[in-house]
Write a structure and sequence with these properties.
Strand content: 5-15%
Radius of gyration: 24 Å
Helix content: 55-70%
Order of helices and strands: HHHHHEEHHHHHEEEHHHHHH
CATH architecture of the largest domain: Orthogonal Bundle
CATH superfamily of the largest domain: Intergrase catalytic core
Shape: globular
Length: 344
């Protein structure tokens, strides 16, 4: 029996979650998820299912019936104003006994889920009109881009070997993971990969003769990326240590926990956070912020936004420009003296 990859296991878990969420949804939602399976990822469908549970719970309060009992006839009678009320409701609401708040990004995602459902139902002649398409998407206000400066990057890497603020217990624990943590942080900062891409890496994905490795991108596509000698050195030191671990022959994960299993996403987030606090205690640094740090540094070295977009796996260069404010800032600086007002 073939062993499932990290990404296949993740998709299997997400598909099961979709099935669990569908229990409380109207029956026609199940057909919707079947219909969009070929054009969406399991993670996207899971997010849709979560969002639609909130939407139909809202409708159930209006219609005075269980979410699962809502019919296509009920949906056909929904007006644009009802969806607008839902968008307002999302600012502060209660669901399954917990209180939630949604900012612009949360509202945008939930509206996207609703629009996908209504579009599907309308295109399949199950409802007479697509009222959700009339609702404007919330405008997202750009946030300040948080990233590490060059000296903070050096502090973060140095803190892995010599953490200044760790307790004696933490330092003792850290001795067992230094090589691994240094390899992870260095790989993040030296390639800009996503946390899911790093978590899914296997030993066989690396080719040190070319300093190259294979990553599985969002959506399942694969790319070959390259790394520097500095990154290669950190990875090789970790692999030497990894060989001393008592691992099952079937465990191919590049990064291993102290329990000798593939290191999970939450654990990776925690280790990034603890070393980032050493380097910059006032900044909330996540793996994605390390990605921003790399993207900005790469642009400043290459001055080519298309190279940055390609390396980071962005399908649209505008995504790169939007997420790396320093890129746009540098572009403006570069053209400041290009137009001469006086020929003299």
């Amino acid at each position: 029996m073939r062993t499932l990859s990290f990404f296949e296991k993740r998709d299997l878990i997400n598909n099961k979650k979709v099935g669990n969420y569908c229990i409380n949804l109207p029956e026609f939602c199940y057909d919707f998820f079947i219909g969009i399976e070929s054009t969406t990822t399991a993670l996207t469908r899971m997010n849709y299912a979560m969002d639609l549970n909130v939407f139909f719970d809202f409708l159930s309060q209006i219609l005075k019936k269980n979410s699962s009992d809502i019919t296509l006839d009920d949906v056909s009678k929904i007006k644009a104003s009802t969806i607008e009320q839902f968008m307002s409701y999302l600012s502060f609401y209660e669901f399954n006994g917990k209180v939630y708040k949604n900012q612009e990004s949360g509202k945008k995602r939930k509206l996207s889920s609703i629009k996908s459902l209504f579009k599907y139902l309308f295109n399949h002649d199950l409802i007479p009109s697509d009222v959700a398409s009339k609702i404007p998407t919330p405008k997202l206000h750009l946030k300040n881009i948080i990233r590490l400066e060059k000296e903070e990057v050096s502090k973060m890497i140095n803190s892995i070997e010599n953490p200044r603020t760790f307790s004696a217990r933490q330092k003792n624990y850290n001795k067992n993971t230094t090589a691994r943590d240094n390899a992870i942080i260095t790989l993040f900062l030296g390639t800009g990969i996503r946390i899911s891409e790093l978590a899914g890496l296997n030993i066989e994905d690396f080719d040190f003769s070319q300093n190259a490795f294979k990553v599985t991108r969002k959506g399942g596509s694969q790319s070959i990326l390259y790394f520097s000698e500095e990154v290669a050195s950190a990875l090789k030191l970790w692999l030497i240590h990894r060989k001393t671990l008592r691992l099952d022959d079937s465990e191919k994960a590049m990064f291993i926990s102290l329990q000798n299993r593939r290191l999970g996403i939450r654990a990776i987030e925690n280790l990034v956070s603890k070393f980032a606090k050493e380097a910059s205690p006032l900044k909330k640094i996540s793996p994605h912020k390390l990605r921003s740090t790399y993207g900005t540094a790469l642009y400043r070295e290459t001055k080519d936004i298309y190279i940055v977009a390609d390396v980071l796996g962005h399908k649209d260069v505008n995504t790169t420009r939007k997420h790396y404010a320093a890129i746009s800032e540098d572009m403006r600086k570069n053209v400041a003296d290009k137009v001469q007002l006086n020929d003299e």
